[in-house]
């Protein structure tokens, strides 16, 4: 049976572009005729708001999915964009890490077991992780085929990546031997600054061909779109940010072809 490719967007460092990437990669894949489910597993709910949902529009969320009190199908919302669906997160999720930690059964597999039930109706499932390596991120990595790591072109960009890679390796060795590093994405890249170029060289030296050829430029339109609750393609499709995320989707689709 056909199964969606499931990709976690993860980096426990805050503010590196996980959510921006989750939203805009999802919408860019839709523009390439893919059916996409965006899953918000961050209590901040930024992806949820970024595709136009306010807290008061959401009764059932990923919290219920993880607690197994609702079926995944009850947690899926249609967005204003055809072929882009959402499993939203609200602040309720803040307590979930603790509740999962003390749960007896299947605490690492809650998300996987639920997503497996809808894997046949999407081409891609994109999971926006929180800036931590707790049970929420673990659930995302256990459920995924690949992990996409955004790295911000700033000081200390590589800091914390050692722990992230150790976590990925631990999950590969225990719960999910199918997990691969889908790719490393340079974000908020400003080619005019020496620092950004130095960081890009360092990251490419470390991750080699796993770094995407495309990097995401710093583009104010990306944060404007997010605050308006729209993916960039639906806000300003001619912006450099929109073009970069479209290139990323294209590169990802091409990589998938060569992987098969
Ligand atoms: N390429 C970019 N150009 C300009 N602004 C950006 C870009 N990428 C992200 N931003 C802005 O930077 C901020 C942090 O980005 P984002 O929310 O995507 O990071 P995050 O890794 O999801 O953060 P958190 O760890 O808190 O979940 C946001 O205000 C976002 O709009
Ligand atoms: Mg985020």
- The end-to-end distance, rounded to whole angstroms, is 16 Å
Mean pLDDT: 95
Sequence of strands across the biggest β-sheet: 3-4-2-5-1-6-7
What is the N-to-C order of secondary-structure elements (H for helix, E for strand)? EHEHHEEHHEHEHEHHH
| Strand-residue proportion | 5-15%
Say what the CATH topology is.
Rossmann fold
Structural class of the helices, strands and pairings? alpha/beta
For the biggest sheet, the summary is: 7 strands, mixed
Full CATH superfamily name: P-loop containing nucleotide triphosphate hydrolases
Task: List cofactors, ions and other ligands.
Answer: adenosine-5'-triphosphate, magnesium ion
Portion in helices: 25-40%
Based on CA atoms alone, the radius of gyration comes out at: 17 Å
Instruction: Return the domain count.
Output: 1
Describe the structure in your own words:
This protein is 38% helix and 14% strand. The chain is of the alpha/beta class and 260 residues long. It has one domain (5-259): P-loop containing nucleotide triphosphate hydrolases (Rossmann fold, 3-Layer(aba) Sandwich). The chain has a 7-stranded mixed beta sheet with strand order 3-4-2-5-1-6-7, sandwiched between helices. α1 packs across α10. The longest helix has 20 residues, at 240-259. The model has no long low-confidence stretch (mean pLDDT 95). The structure holds adenosine-5'-triphosphate (ATP) and magnesium ion (MG).
């Amino acid at each position: 049976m056909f199964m969606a490719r499931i990709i976690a967007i993860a980096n426990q460092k805050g503010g590196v572009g996980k959510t921006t990437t989750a939203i805009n990669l999802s919408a860019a894949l839709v523009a390439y005729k893919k059916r996409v489910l965006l899953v918000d597993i961050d209590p901040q709910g930024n992806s949820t708001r970024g595709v136009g949902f306010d807290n008061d529009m959401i009764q059932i969320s990923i919290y219920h999915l993880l607690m197994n009190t609702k079926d995944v199908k009850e947690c899926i919302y249609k967005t204003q964009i055809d072929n882009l669906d959402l499993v939203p997160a609200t602040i309720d999720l803040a307590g979930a890490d603790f509740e999962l930690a003390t749960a007896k059964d299947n605490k690492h597999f809650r998300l996987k077991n639920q997503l497996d039930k809808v894997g046949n109706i999407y081409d891609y499932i994109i999971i926006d992780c929180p800036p931590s390596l707790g049970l929420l991120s673990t659930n995302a990595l256990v459920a995924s085929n690949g992990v996409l790591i955004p790295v911000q072109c700033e000081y200390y960009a590589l800091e914390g990546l050692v722990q992230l890679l150790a976590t990925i390796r631990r999950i590969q060795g225990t719960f999910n031997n199918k997990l691969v590093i889908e790719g490393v994405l340079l974000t908020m890249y400003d080619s005019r600054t020496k620092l950004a170029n130095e960081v890009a060289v360092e990251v490419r030296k470390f991750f080699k061909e796993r770094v995407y050829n495309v990097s995401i430029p710093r583009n104010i339109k990306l944060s404007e779109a997010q605050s308006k609750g729209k993916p960039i393609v639906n806000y300003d499709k001619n912006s450099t940010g929109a073009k970069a995320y479209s290139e990323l989707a294209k590169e990802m689709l091409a990589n998938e072809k060569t992987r098969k």
